[in-house]
From TrEMBL, chain A:
Gene source species: Olea europaea subsp. europaea
Matching PANTHER family: EUKARYOTIC TRANSLATION INITIATION FACTOR 3 SUBUNIT F, EUKARYOTIC TRANSLATION INITIATION FACTOR 3 SUBUNIT F-RELATED
Molecular functions (GO terms): metallopeptidase activity; translation initiation factor activity; translation initiation factor binding
A Pfam family assignment: JAB
The protein, known as: Eukaryotic translation initiation factor 3 subunit F-like
One Gene Ontology cellular component annotation held by this UniProt entry: eukaryotic translation initiation factor 3 complex, eIF3m
Domain MPN: 20-151
TrEMBL record, chain B:
Name of a matching Pfam family: JAB
Stretches assigned to the MPN domain: 24-157
PROSITE patterns: MPN
UniProt entry keywords in alphabetical sequence: Cytoplasm, Initiation factor, Protein biosynthesis
Alphabetical list of SMART domains matching this protein: JAB_MPN
Ranges annotated as biased composition (Basic and acidic residues): 266-277
Highest classification ranks of the organism: Eukaryota, Viridiplantae, Streptophyta, Embryophyta, Tracheophyta
Organism: Olea europaea subsp. europaea
Protein's name in the database: Eukaryotic translation initiation factor 3 subunit H
The keyword Cytoplasm is assigned to this record: yes
Amino acid sequence: MASSGQTVLQFSSSSTSVSARVHPLVIFNICDFYVRRADQAERVIGTLLGSVLPDGTVDIRNSYAVPHNESSDQVALDIDYHHNMLLSHQKVNPKEVIVGWFSTGFGVTGGSALIHEFYAREVSNPVHLTVDTGFKNGEAAIKGFVSINLSLGDQQLAAQFQEIPLDLRMVEAERVGFDVLKPTTVDKIPNDLEGMEASMERLLALIDDVYKYVDDVVGVLLQIMTSANFYQTL
Amino acid sequence: MAAQSRSFLQVAATEEVAPPLRVVQIEGLVILKIIKHCQEFSPALVTGQLLGLDVGSVLEVTNCFPFPIREEDEEIEAEGANYQLEMMRCLREVNVDNNTVGWYQSTLFGSFQTVELIETFMNYQENIRRCVCIVYDPSRSNQGVLALKALKLSDSFMDLYKNNNFTGEKLRDKNLSWVDIFEEIPIKVSNSALISAFMTELETDTPVRQCDYDRLQLSTNPFLERNMEFLIECMDDLSMEQQKFQFYYRNLSRQQAQQQAWLQKRRTENMSRKAAGEEPLPEEDPSNPIFKPLPEPSRLESFLVTNQVSNYCNQINGVAGQSFSRLYLMKALHED
């Protein structure tokens, strides 16, 4: 039995249960900014806009890049630009507020902690989104993090970036255009009937899948029922 | 040789003939932004600016930003211009093309052919050589179609509009009918390779939840009803315009009859004067009000209304086709 004199490094569990929902526009924006970045910049950093839903989910709806300078020991962010863009965006849509920030590149680096601190001054509990444009592990990794404070007893030790579940959802109208958004070029926008055709094909594929699934389940059940062990497991 | 070497001044003076605009190439990012903006504010109508590059016969649209909804107030006009400048400056810092190539607007059930649209076009045309207007219809997109159109005013129409002359003979001269006002340009969508890669990776997960069921829903009544309402209103407008013309023609023929009568009177007067040996009076009298030329009402409104009518008809056609296929689908499923 440990004496009560010992203090324990506490990881507050993810009882904050924050999750984030990301609209595809944000990903498109980030990729576009990454493709257009200045030659000497390795990564792109910017602000995420959105709102916090009543159940605690963060809804990330828009984003803009902020010019920054990063060297090995310090990070400089153009704060005026950040505020100007925020004001301009809010003129159009006053309900979108800062909910966090994004950066391209895999994982979290040292400089990120400083930037996160800056954003923590703007909004409480900002969400940090990393979009891996380098496809480091051979897959597209989009991760979201919040910062949890590590404390040793009463003393603040460090802030830990803890991953939160992300949800990529599309609004109905965007779903309609999704076929158009995937390939590198599309020669013309499909009209009504062609779109109908595509939907029906998709529905057919879905029905086939469900059919097969149900067949499989029934097949397995049948197997279980006819196997000798069944009555024994009852 | 003087013929071969042209001075710089000469080269600068010769205007290049621009190749005609054949296709508008939009990036997926722009489409998503337009959809998001129009959808958020529907049913209010919103506008925004398009940015991009003008390359040969292709107009590339690479980015866009929305305009805030402006109230009708004089001092807010300056704010609007400020907002635009601010946005363009900020976007330039992150290497976005900050060349205006047009604007986009949302519309309700396709009723966008108005005089304001033409005026906005003329305004833009003064500064930019080639501009395009992208119209997005959020109500139709709820039916499951990506209702995006790129429009441009035809050149012959623009010349006519500058002279503000829409009389019958002028239009017949130029062989211009209501079809020729707006030109629709085909849209091509392009995406950077990075985005393609991301979207292909991210798509696989939940095909079940992400299926576009809305396109398959059977209820199309509200949409068809609104369309028919608008169509009927347009027919009313059209008949009003026609009445204006009838009124004009009636006045014109009445005036001509008056002119003839006056001329006759003058002629008989002149004959009697000649018999009396006096100077004959002139056979024309510009100060007399019956000789004042009547202004012919402009045909512009009726052209625009006709355009709208054709648009509504096309939409109803499209929806009817879709509904039929849906009904056949349901029938097939029920038979199983």
